[in-house]
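Lay summary. Proteins are chains of building blocks that fold into shapes, and those shapes determine what they do. In this project we predict the shape from the chain. Here is one chain we studied, written as its sequence of building blocks.
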Amino acid sequence: MRQWYRNLDFATLLIWVMLCACGLIAIYSATHGEAQEFLLNTVQNSFQRQILWLVISTVALAIILSMPMRLLIRMVPWIYLVTIGLLVLALLIGREVGGARSWIYLGPVGFQSAELAKVGVLLMAALVLASRRKENSIMNAAMIAAGVLALPVLLIVLQNDLGTALVFVGLTPVLALCSGIPLRIVGLLILFPIAGYLAILSWQAALGFTVLVGIIAWYGTRSRVWMAAGVVASAMTFGIATFALQYVLQPHQVARIASFSNPEADEYRTNVGFHLVQSKAALGSGGWFGLGFRQGTQTQGRYIPEQSTDFVFSVIGEEWGFVGGILILLLFAALILRLLWLARAIDHPIGNLVVAGVAGIFLIHVCVNIGMVLGLLPVIGIPLPFLSYGGSALLTNTALLGIALACYMRRAEFALYW
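And here is the predicted shape, written in a compact code that computers can read:
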């Protein structure tokens, strides 16, 4: 029998190293050179702090890879409880950063509780769904898993961190699909974000989508019940989105959502639409091969807000060009596809669900962040994995990757301890 460490997937590790290296280069460019004089001292030190967090993340990765699978599984409920505790603690004593009250500080060191929650929530949801093999009741397990996901989502929404909450919402259909829940139900789950997005664009688009859903449901199932369910789900989402825009979200949040379709309008260009206007200018000026390292006019002029965090891809697009941006996307595609391949190689539900869930989290982050930078989605504040500056995000994403690699490495141990 091969030693566990010989099963380590070095291809995935290599992609992780390459993404982290690209992130460090982009962060250095965004915080040095001519741009440095426009930045706060704390932002100027982002590159050094990111290196420190990368070292910490590497140590965490090594610890996770050396952990027996039995110990990891037994720790899942406790990890989830600690996750919920940190989310509650952030609401009580947390510090507000960037409009979200999700930061807990221990002296000078701060971490984002909502980011760390991804680990505990994914593990607990996968554990509950995997238990269906014992209970022989997938729908009961699905209802419990929905509660496991809903509680942290509620706490994160209360922290005003809608971007991270969106990750958990998007994770729901991914886990549902991988756990064997009927495709009809998964289709209903996917309806909600699509209908909500169209409701933001226009009521005509939302109405047309509702009619289309009814037609597809009828021809796909020949069932009036499922046709009605699809239409009702789409219509409810449209109503909820409209209600939230008018009565729930704060004015600046509504303005951000409304501005993404036309950020250059006079009422948005100099305020909430400024991010997208400058981001598009940076991407457009990069051309095919970019302006060169620390040569981006938008980057070095500090015109791009949050250019080392949420909008780091704008820096890459300006200085590395279209080709550099495509290479980054190819690295992410390779990482996600590789994780899906690892998931299929694990012949056990909990390992399969965890690895697929990690791939899903990365996919949601990439799609939302890139969509935001390109102006296809509203600016909601969500980092690009391994590239954006942020210690909590880097540590969390590396831990998730380490857990996925550990599940693949120790896949033979599931049968022994489960």
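What the prediction tells us: The chain has a mean pLDDT of 80.
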